[in-house]
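2024-03-11 09:14:02 DEBUG pipeline.ingest accepted 1 chain
2024-03-11 09:14:02 DEBUG pipeline.ingest length=195
2024-03-11 09:14:03 DEBUG pipeline.predict start
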Amino acid sequence: MTSPRLRTPRLLVLAGVVAAGLVLAGCSATNPITTEDEYAASDGVLVTLGDVRGSNLLVLTAGEGEPAVLHGALTNDGAEEETVTLTLDGAEPTVVPVPAGATVLLDGSDEDGHADVSVAAISVPAGALAPLTVATGRSGSVNLDVPVLDGTLPEYAGSIPTASATPTPEPAAEPAAEPTASAEPTPAPSESAED
């Protein structure tokens, strides 16, 4: 006859594995998972307005009073196109259409999938914060401050906007001087004494 084998050690190991799994799973129930939190992973700021997300929003300029451009991206997570209005540093608003499920890069370019949001002269120096208003037709608007950076960091040095050269006007050509009449009388032809 065979004797029954004890299964207690196997049951204890199995119970231990299940208990450890439950304990470890409970960690995420009591502690938030940080990778699920949205945060600005770079130098710019993050904003969410309805279905539209603005990522890594920052301003690049050579300095206060110089041209500046908004960099970053706008992503539309919705099923319909969104019209986003961006107002940088009190300048004229720029309207950026963002198709459904698409991303538009803010980089000073007018190519397809890109947008140019710039000002002729920024009112704050590099290292400060510039006011930006982000608005959509469906979700209202939000005001935020975005960092202003210059070309000190090598990754931004090639993206600093420059003032477009204003052509200098050609000096007006002076009219050609007309010959002036001489004030001296011209001598009369002399008469010959051979008459």
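2024-03-11 09:14:41 DEBUG pipeline.report DSSP finds two helices and ten strands in the chain.
2024-03-11 09:14:41 DEBUG pipeline.predict end
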